Amino acid sequence: MTKNLSILGSTGSIGRNTLAVAGRFPERFRVRALAAKGNISLLARQIERFRPDAAAVFDEENARALEKTIPGGVGTKILWGPDGYAEAAAFPKTDMTLSAFSGAAGLSPTLAAIEAGKDIALANKETLVMAGEIVLKAARESRAAILPVDSEHSAIFQCLEGQRRKDLEKIILTASGGPFWNRPDVDFSRIRPEDALAHPTWSMGKKISVDSATLMNKALEAVEAMRLFHLSHDQIEILIHPQSIVHSMAAYIDGSVMAQMGVPDMKTAIAYALSYPKRLPLRQPLPDFALLKSLEFEKPDPKRFPSLDFAKEACEKGGSLPAVMNAANESAVAAFLEGRALFSDIFAIIETVMARHLPIPDPSLSDILEADAWARETADHFIAHAGQNPKKKKIDAS
């Protein structure tokens, strides 16, 4: 039976890998809708290759450019803006929506897909970080399944299969550590964007690569794991694992620890979400354990990487604070990549914005979106007042 797919974020790393999997198994998958922001040339090639019924872009200008770029006779309906994204996400012929937009932009279209009863292959962790209770409630009401695509959450999902949940003691999320975890000599104020983007084991987009370098990616994953697997923060341990072979583990009350392992390639987790409960014959190479010799694990240093403490605070206080943490991080990372803030400023910006926010308990979706907007505005204010040359003036988190 063919599964019909809508892919949000088709031109990003996860989207491209998803299309690679779908393209290898045309008898199993049919691409019905694509959505991207502004990489028109790549999106046009994807449309020509997969002939979706619809494709959505960020705005009307990009839509017009796409219409001029795609070959005549393709027949793909071109959509744009929030309404276009929602239509592509909840496209009537779709069985499953792959949510791989970067950041908070993924929340609204993912909710639209869930409310339409589409199963979700979730790569956009921010959806659950920002509005986990709202999203999960909507999924229960529409009977939409949420299947994790992040390698860590896919690993936990697989390690929990067939086990009694009451026997689970904790989960262990592994982190590659990014390029700086074992370099105490590195001055964070001197790190350039190209340094932070040089991930040692994974090939990812710019934002998530910076998040990996600050360990904020793991902070967001901890919040997502709490909500996805109904855990307390105390049931989550994070360890640096530079080889990126053990994608995560589940520890049980009898002392057993189950690990899911594989080479660092997102196609494995993507394929499992798309084909669950079956597995696709990807023919991925297995880890060469004899060549590896050893698998290393180390506790992260919270003094150098305070992101994990931010996540703990966000989980403990709850309400709208996780959304604020996420928004402040997105603004800080954007400023760093654009040369408006230092790498070390990312932590200061997040800490400052979180400290200024009074969490809203049991927030509605509008409360969350307002908190998100407030956090971005507040972060941008601090960034702007750090001076025209951020290298000459660090942002004060006090």
UniProtKB/TrEMBL annotation:
GO biological process, any: isopentenyl diphosphate biosynthetic process, methylerythritol 4-phosphate pathway involved in terpenoid biosynthetic process
In short, the EC number is 1.1.1.267
Domain 1-deoxy-D-xylulose 5-phosphate reductoisomerase C-terminal span(s) in chain numbering? 146-229
Q: Which InterPro entries match?
A: DXP_reductoisomerase, DXP_reductoisomerase_C, DXP_reductoisomerase_N, DXPR_C, DXPR_C_sf, NAD(P)-bd_dom_sf
**SUPFAM superfamilies with a match to the protein in the record:** 1-deoxy-D-xylulose-5-phosphate reductoisomerase, C-terminal domain, Glyceraldehyde-3-phosphate dehydrogenase-like, C-terminal domain, NAD(P)-binding Rossmann-fold domains
Q: Domain DXP reductoisomerase C-terminal spans what residues?
A: 261-377
Q: Which reaction does it catalyse?
A: 2-C-methyl-D-erythritol 4-phosphate + NADP(+) = 1-deoxy-D-xylulose 5-phosphate + NADPH + H(+)
What is its cofactor?
A: Mg(2+); Mn(2+)
Q: Which residues bind Mn(2+)?
A: 150, 152, 221
Residues holding 1-deoxy-D-xylulose 5-phosphate: 125, 151-152, 176, 199, 212, 217-218, 221
Could you say which residues bind NADPH here?
A: 11-14, 39, 124, 126, 205
Which pathway does it serve?
Isoprenoid biosynthesis; isopentenyl diphosphate biosynthesis via DXP pathway; isopentenyl diphosphate from 1-deoxy-D-xylulose 5-phosphate: step 1/6
User: GO molecular function of the protein, one example?
Assistant: 1-deoxy-D-xylulose-5-phosphate reductoisomerase activity
Limits of the 1-deoxy-D-xylulose 5-phosphate reductoisomerase N-terminal domain: 5-132
Q: Which UniProt keywords apply?
A: Isomerase, Isoprene biosynthesis, Magnesium, Manganese, Metal-binding, NADP, Oxidoreductase
> What PANTHER family is this protein classified in?
1-DEOXY-D-XYLULOSE 5-PHOSPHATE REDUCTOISOMERASE, 1-DEOXY-D-XYLULOSE 5-PHOSPHATE REDUCTOISOMERASE, CHLOROPLASTIC
| Role noted for this protein | Catalyzes the NADPH-dependent rearrangement and reduction of 1-deoxy-D-xylulose-5-phosphate (DXP) to 2-C-methyl-D-erythritol 4-phosphate (MEP).
The record's comment on protein family reads: Belongs to the DXR family.
- Record's protein name: 1-deoxy-D-xylulose 5-phosphate reductoisomerase
This protein's species is: uncultured Desulfobacteraceae bacterium
